[in-house]
Amino acid sequence: MRYNNDKRVVMTLDAGGTNFVFNAVQAEQEILDPIRIPSEGSTLEIVLNKIIQGFSEVKAKLQVSPVAISFCFPGPAEYELGIIGDLENLPAFRGGVALGPMLEEKFGIPVFINNDGDLFAFGEAISGLLPEINERIKSSSSPKTYRNLLGVTFGTGFGGGIVSRGHLFMGDNSAQGEINRLRNKLHTNASAEENVSIRGVKRIYCRESKLDFNTCPEPREIYEIGMGLREGNKEAAIMAFHRLAEVAGDTIANATSLVDGLVVIGGGLAGAHPLFLQRLVDEMNTNYTTVVGTALDRMEIRAFNLENEDDFKIFYEGDTREIKVPFSDKRIKYDPMKRIGVGISRLGTSKAVSIGAYAFALSKLDNA
Question: What is the fold, at CATH topology level, of the domain defined by 9-116?
Answer without folding.
Answer: Nucleotidyltransferase; domain 5 (3.30.420)
